[in-house]
Predict the structure of Bacterial regulatory helix-turn-helix protein, LysR family protein 105.
Amino acid sequence: MDLKNLRVFTRIAEAGSLTRAAAALGIAQSALSRQLSELEQEFGGRLFFRTGRGVLLTELGESLIPRAQALLLEADQLLEEAQAAQRKPAGIVNLGVIPSLSQPLIGMLLTYTQARYPGIRLRVFEGYSGEIEAWLANGKIDIGIYNRYRAASTRPQEVLFETEMKLVTSAGSAVAASRELRLADLAAVPLALPVRPNSLRAVLDSLTLRAGIELNVVLEADSGVVIKDAILRGGLHSILPSHAVSTELADGSLVAIGLADPAVRQTVLMDLSRQRPATAATRQLFKALPDLARQVVAGAPADKPRRPRAAPRSG
């Protein structure tokens, strides 16, 4: 068994047709069929059912395709690592980031890579913390930036910074002039919050249950853009870190009010997927991201940056 035959196997599975797979690989269909037959002999069974419309994976094929794809990915990244030793880091880095940091962090990261490492390409996935942790666990992303409101796990994540959550409201709202609000005060304001399951919602649910308070959640959304627009145009309020609305705070369209009794603190973390090899490009961005993230929150006085650890080695 060699990588060439494995690549034939995965390409046929992706194309669903021997004809389309042969065209994609740039080889004759007869050569493709021969390589597939060799692989089926090595595996001891048929990998595909032939149908009038193409091919479908057999039970054996279904069981083998994830491992074949993982082996090819690792082989491609091994080749990339070897080539990268002779040049600057390059290749695709898959990054997952929470909505509160995606703007302007991604723009800043693009500026950084284009100026220093033009061979690095970004693939960005925006999601809430639970999604990002799942993407790290299943290997969808290389690097994940997410938050926690409770004790972190035993995994050695990079702590980027800590910040206090605020009640964010429009400049003309009834509570905009308040210097500070208690948790109990939030029951009187209409809120826009993330859709459950969500780490912030879990913390708020726990706090309000203990205090015997029910929040007035008018809008639930899985989009930071939608929540921000609901504050600006819909007269709603939300609980966010200041850096999530830094532009609007600067132009005066939104106001961030401190929360007390109790305060809600957010810890922003960065982690690597253990399911993907850490390429030179991934390691370089892992090293650069802490400074860029601290620049995003530099204007928030309550934010407490942490010194980064050294970038991890591949392995």
In short: The chain has ten helices and 13 strands. Residues 300-315 have pLDDT under 50 and may be disordered. Residues 3-86 form a domain with the Arc Repressor Mutant, subunit A fold (CATH 1.10.10.10). The radius of gyration is 25 Å.
